[in-house]
Write a structure and sequence with these properties.
The complex is a heterodimer of chains A (about 500) and B (about 425).
Chain A: E1 4-15, E2 18-29, E3 33-37, H1 44-52, E4 61-66, E5 69-70, H2 76-81, E6 84-87, H3 99-103, E7 110-111, E8 114-115, H4 117-131, H5 146-159, E9 164-168, H6 176-191, E10 195-199, H7 203-209, E11 212-217, E12 220-226, H8 232-240, E13 258-268, E14 276-286, E15 290-294, H9 301-308, E16 315-323, E17 326-327, H10 333-339, E18 341-344, H11 348-352, H12 359-364, E19 372-373, E20 376-377, H13 379-392, H14 409-422, E21 427-431, H15 439-454, E22 458-462, H16 466-472, E23 475-480, E24 483-489, H17 495-508
Parallel strand pairs in A: 3-10, 3-11, 6-9, 9-10, 15-22, 15-23, 18-21, 21-22
Antiparallel strand pairs in A: 1-2, 1-4, 4-5, 7-8, 11-12, 13-14, 13-16, 16-17, 19-20, 23-24
Helix pairs in contact in A: 4-5, 13-14
Chain B: H1 11-18, H2 22-52, H3 60-85, H4 93-110, H5 119-143, H6 148-166, H7 178-185, E1 195-198, E2 214-216, H8 218-244, H9 252-274, H10 281-299, H11 301-311, H12 313-318, H13 323-349, H14 360-370, H15 382-402, H16 406-430
Helix pairs in contact in B: 2-15, 3-9, 3-10, 3-13, 3-14, 3-15, 4-5, 4-6, 4-13, 5-6, 5-13, 7-13, 8-9, 10-11, 11-13, 14-15, 14-16
The chains are: A alpha/beta (about 500), B mainly alpha (about 425).
């Protein structure tokens, strides 16, 4: 025992404009459960993609040594071939195929292309027994819950004769009970001698099963803690303990009365009607105030914002929203916009932009009546509006006729922002406004936010980057599992405090 | 981790403004070349057939035929363009056209409707029925998210069936009144009076030889001149307005060449029509519709919204666009234009036949795709679809005159469709 099975040395991975990993080291011993923890965006998933060959050898620097041999994976197939199997956060199962078909997808027992279903099903039965799943191998994936789907993924990994199992946030979408069962299964595998890497930010889980914890922050390895040193406090300090430079524009908040108020907001899942996604949220924003909503991925923040904005998410939505003390109707997006609410999406490519059209048309889309009369667009007015906002938000492009699909992430985000600024809202909800954009563009976005607040708008910023929230907000709500679990003035908030509120909130939900 | 890249906000902008020299001119030329490539292709195809048919193609009588044979395709292509730009497809247009033709014939010839069998009343009723058909199909597509391919495939079967049932099996119904047939085969009246430039030759028997001499249909000439002048004037005025605001992408020489070539082509066609029997009524109808749809797609908010919906429906919805209602409207519009197409077909044939419009949905869709529309939605131009329609029409007409077998005509049309789309995709990837 205790021989090193995997050694990753000085892994550096650069994306255009961003260094995602710099000199990361990770050493995993045979037979242990090794946890990798870090904030969202710290580089955990990138590291695992390097390890599994999603980013092929040559696109990163550094060495991967698995069982004493240096590996240069060209793709996932290579890494799976030698026994490294990764189970991604988003499950990669085909919903309308059966458990058996999914487990052996691309790997079927077949003779000359003719599948021997009996053999496959017998093997599936054995695998399902191993992971403790009592389902007929013929059951369609769509008919079983997420927890069981996770088990099918693990069974699939076992079918490939796995030597190193990597689980990326395996319990993110599982209930408490399913999570416990999954962790028990991991411990069982460990008894049988399997090595696994667990990526998680649920520290109580890490605490329970991990033999070692490696903390990653800002694309660097901070430290690796042995079993005896693992404690939540220790990990939190290590996860967030970064120095804050001058990364946020200075501002002098002039905060007025409450202008936007949400009372008792509840939302149910659009498909699983019995699942309550948002649980009785109360929240208010003052004039000129920047309010942050902190939380981990899957806390329900985006769902909350989208359900507010024209009921774009969920059903059975109940609760009241008022602007300047008067209740407002947000039942459709156009009504929400007319009432003075704007929502800047976290996913600009899917929900924010028409990528095959140019900047000018994107900027005016949410407020076409502002550049037209009786349904006829005034080309000159539209042109000057587009140029105006291009200057205001400093969009770098050859002209307003550049396609938004060809812009960088930061400039795309500025186009989406421009679109909503031109709609002239009183309340602006920004969902992950700096996701995937470089440091320079981030600063520009912060500047725009500060300017809008100074103009007297009420601003809600949803962000998974805690330093960012602390840097730009006046007040912070902490959300977890669909409810508000903390509220604090930014002046006496800290990353530790936010993390504690989340971790404590985690236990409450059942 | 400091913020070196954060400041210096204005530098990028200033640079861009200064560079409005040769680089802009070149880019304007390349974008315009792509835009006009299609028109150039049409002209090349026309010249090719002009040569291979020994000059028959451009003969005034043949030009009139060309327009009358293809007008229904182009009318329906206008609606199909919006459908495809919005991200859908409509396979039912040929059947709907056939059904409407049958309905019109029954109302005018068979059913005892009294004064309601008047062609004008019948046409209006038919257009309303077309709108209802579009609404019925659009409802399922817009509000129940049933794929348009399936809904309109069902519509294609249903309305072809009703069309045949209405006509009582395989028989045709006619003849239709002359005033109705004028929609397709009529020419605008010459209110000004003809102008004889060269008197027709008189043969030995004292009769004039048909087709000799040159007499111009003056109303056509005047209308043509007005249209060309308006085209040049509005083009120039828009340019001036843009210049005043400090925006101009297109270099002046290019603008002049474009306007001159466009005007010369238009005047040539006007002259050809005027030397025959004047402007076909259906060409006038088409011209009005094309202008209307160019205006709607280029200048109106509803047009812009259709493009936005086709480009990214979710983003459009989150920008406050009622995508469901917009989808319904696009299909209602398609229904009305299919009905108009059906009336034009019936008017040209002078009767309703069970096979009217059969397979024309494919010609209509092909015209839109040859015109540069994207099957993914969000991309496409009215003028492109019209030119695409004419390319199909000229090839049909030219190959028929050449005596190419109908089977091989299909092969050639298929290859042209494939080639046009490959050219588009290749261009897009290069850009």
């Amino acid at each position: 025992m205790a021989s090193t099975i995997l050694e990753m040395r000085d892994i550096t991975k650069t994306f255009p404009g961003v260094k995602a990993l710099s000199n990361v080291n990770l050493s995993v011993e045979e037979g242990e459960i090794h946890a990798v923890v870090g904030e969202n965006g710290a580089g955990k998933s990138t590291l695992m993609k390097v390890l599994s060959g999603v980013y092929p050898s040559g696109t990163y620097e550094g060495q991967i040594i698995f069982r004493g041999q240096e590996c240069n994976f060209k793709g996932i197939h290579d890494s799976e071939h030698i026994g490294i199997v990764i189970i991604h956060q988003e499950l990669a199962l085909v919903p309308m195929l059966s458990i058996t078909e999914n487990i052996f997808l691309g790997n079927e027992h077949a003779t000359y292309g003719v599948i021997d279903w009996d053999a496959n099903e017998t093997r599936t039965g054995a695998l399902l027994k191993k992971v403790g799943l009592k389902e007929d191998p013929k059951t369609l994936i769509t008919n079983i819950g997420v927890g069981k789907q996770q088990l099918v993924e693990i069974a699939k990994a076992l079918s490939k004769e796995v030597k190193l199992l990597i689980l990326d946030e395996p319990t993110a979408s599982l209930s408490e009970k399913d999570s416990q069962a999954l962790l028990d299964l991991l411990l069982e595998f460990k008894r049988q001698g399997m090595t696994s890497i667990l990526i998680s930010h649920k520290l109580n889980e890490v605490n329970r099963v991990a033999d070692k914890v490696t903390v990653i922050r800002d694309g660097r390895t901070i430290e690796t803690l042995p079993r005896k040193d693992i404690s939540e406090d220790r990990i939190i300090t290590s996860m967030v303990g970064r120095s804050l430079d001058d990364r946020y524009p200075p501002r002098e908040p002039k905060i007025g009365d409450v202008i936007f108020e949400v009372k008792d907001w509840s939302v149910y899942h659009p498909i699983h009607a019995e699942r309550q996604v948002i649980k009785n949220i109360n929240l208010n924003v003052r004039k000129g105030e920047v309010v942050g909503i902190a939380g981990l991925m899957g806390a329900g923040r985006t769902e909350f914002a989208m359900s507010l904005f024209g009921r774009s998410y969920g059903r059975h939505i109940t609760g009241e929203v008022s602007l300047h003390g008067k209740p407002i109707d947000l039942s459709s997006v156009s009504k929400a916009v007319a009432s003075g609410i704007a929502y800047v999406t976290e996913d600009r490519k899917t929900y924010g932009l028409n990528l095959i059209d140019h900047i000018k048309h994107n900027v005016t889309l949410a407020n076409l009546s502002g550049v037209s009369s009786r349904g006829v667009i005034d080309d000159m007015r539209e042109m000057s509006v587009a140029n105006d906002y291009r200057k205001k938000t400093n969009i770098r492009a050859s002209s307003v006729y550049q396609l938004t699909g060809n812009l960088s992430g930061g400039n795309q985000q500025k186009v989406v922002l421009s679109k909503w600024l031109f709609a002239d809202p009183e309340v602006l909800i920004l969902d992950e406004p700096t996701r995937g954009i470089d440091v320079g563009a981030k600063y520009e976005i912060y500047t725009i936010i500060a300017r809008l607040a100074a103009e007297g708008k009420a601003i809600i910023v949803i962000s998974s980057e805690m330093p960012e929230l602390l840097g730009i907000s006046d007040r912070i709500y902490v959300m977890n599992e669909g409810r508000i679990v903390g509220e604090m003035a930014a002046s006496d908030a800290s990353q530790e405090k936010i993390m504690r509120a989340i971790v404590r909130g985690e236990g409450k939900a059942s | 981790m400091s913020t070196e890249s954060a400041p210096a906000p204005q530098s990028g902008l200033a640079e861009d403004v200064k560079q409005q020299g040769p680089r802009v001119a070149v880019s304007a030329l390349t974008t315009n070349l792509r835009e006009y490539g299609l028109i150039i292709a049409l002209i090349v195809i026309m010249l090719f057939f002009q040569y291979t048919t020994s000059g028959t193609l451009f003969k005034p009588v043949n030009l009139s035929n060309l327009v009358q044979q293809n007008s229904f395709i182009i009318v329906m292509a206008l609606g199909m363009l919006l459908v495809i730009v919005a991200g859908y497809i409509d396979l039912s247009v040929g059947s709907v056209a056939g059904f409407i033709g049958a309905l019109a014939a029954m109302m005018m010839v068979i059913w005892p409707l009294g004064m309601f069998s008047n062609p004008l009343v019948v046409s209006i009723v038919c257009l309303i029925v077309g709108a209802l058909i579009g609404a019925a199909q659009g409802y399922w597509i817009a509000y129940h998210k049933i794929p348009s391919f399936i809904v309109t495939l069902a519509g294609m079967l249903i309305f072809r069936g009703i069309c045949q049932a209405l006509l009582g099996g395989g028989s045709s119904v006619g003849p239709l009144p002359d005033s109705f047939k004028a929609l397709s085969s009529g020419f605008i009246p010459d209110v000004i009076g003809p102008l004889t430039l060269i008197p027709p030759t008189v043969n030995a028997a004292g009769k004039t030889i048909v087709g000799s001499g040159l007499t111009l249909h003056m109303t056509t000439v005047v209308l043509g001149l007005i249209a060309v002048l308006a085209y040049a004037y509005f083009g120039f005025r828009t340019r001036r307005k843009r210049e005043r605001h400090g925006y101009e992408a297109e270099p002046f020489p290019l603008f002049v060449i474009k306007t001159l070539v466009g005007s010369a082509l238009a005047l040539f066609l006007v002259f050809q029509f005027a030397s025959y029997r004047g402007l076909p009524v259906v060409l006038l109808v088409m011209g009005v519709l094309i202008s209307l749809f160019v205006f709607v797609t280029k200048r109106m908010t509803i047009g812009r919204r259709i493009y936005a919906m086709g480009g990214n429906a979710k983003a459009a919805q989150l920008s406050g666009i009622n995508t469901e209602r917009l989808t319904l409207l696009v299909f209602i519009n398609m229904g009305v234009l299919s009905a108009l197409g059906g009336l034009i077909i019936a008017a040209r044939l002078g009767q309703a036949v069970p096979a009217a419009g059969l397979g024309s949905e494919l010609d209509v869709i092909a015209a839109v795709f040859i015109g540069g529309a994207s099957a993914m939605g969000g991309v496409g131009q009215v003028i492109g679809a019209v030119v695409g329609g004419f390319i199909m029409g000229v090839m049909n007409n030219g190959m028929s005159i050449m005596g190419v077998n109908v089977d091989w005509q299909q092969v050639v049309k298929g290859l042209v469709l494939l080639g046009a789309v490959i050219f588009d995709v290749y261009n897009k990837n290069k850009a």
